[in-house]
Amino acid sequence: MSADFQNWATSCQARIETFLEARLPAIDCVPERLHKAMRYSVLGGGKRVRPLLSFAAGELAGADVVRVTSVAAAVELIHAYSLVHDDLPCMDDDILRRGKPTCHVEFDEATALLTGDSLQTLAFEILAEKRLTDGPESQLEMIAHLALAAGSRGMAGGQAFDLDSVGKPLSLPELEYMHIHKTGALIRAAVMLGARCSSRLNDEQLGKLDHFAKCVGLAFQVVDDLLDTEATTATLGKTAGKDAENNKPTYVSILGISEARELAQKLQCDADQVLNSFGEGALRLRQVTDFIIKRKF
Predict the structure, then answer these.
(1) pLDDT tens per residue, range 32-69
(2) Overall number of domains in the chain
(3) 148: containing domain
(4) 97 - beta bridge partners?
(5) pLDDT digits over 202-230, tens only?
(6) CA-to-CA distance for 239 and 39, rounded, in angstroms?
(7) Which residues of 157-171 are buried (b: 16+ CB within 10 A; e: fewer)?
């Protein structure tokens, strides 16, 4: 990772942390336990990959960084809510997330459920409260885009497919379909919302960005599956080997480690190729993609 990218990423991560710190309700605000759980689940952890993608896409589009910060925060809050709910006993039943006890372990199941609900609604509050693009119709489209990405035809639907697939043999296209929704939909939203904070890109360019984001979303999941197999719990900050233990279909279980690694590299090449028409303006998107593919934890 170049020093230039590291400095840029650190700056973006600090910006999003400061914004989230300010927008999440204070722990002395009633109901205190719920607000403490919300802050516990969002602040001080995670690589903020989705916000980095939003900032990189916004930079490509020449968008106002203040606008991009709001959409990046909204996407990150949706992601955080999904992690809280995914860790619940009725879902993946995990006890560790980002190196600390999961929300339902640290608090309780009911509080964790309400935490996820509250983080999701806060995301849409942020998207609606300030002008984030050049026209109200475009902003409504952005809100609808995130809702679609998070709902039954996106992330939640992918999770439902995942739960239904435990112990079942899936084909590679079926696995891809699942992760286009479960993981990829929110990653695509992160890119598209960042880009749409400006009106500079035309429909053809936005279509190319969406295809780029689809490749990155799938690559992210392939690498996630590899890390779940090869990394330790201490390194990951969450329980390693959980997928195999629960007999879940993954890219590793279907392809094996070597072919899964080749697929991640192919998806990165495809993503890079899509960006060629954007020239140097796509540098940050390329760097974030490289960070995703080469991440160790």
Answers:
(1) 999 999 999 999 988 999 999 999 999 999 999 999 99
(2) 1
(3) 3-294
(4) 100
(5) 999 999 999 999 999 999 999 999 998 88
(6) 22
(7) bbbebbeebeeeebe
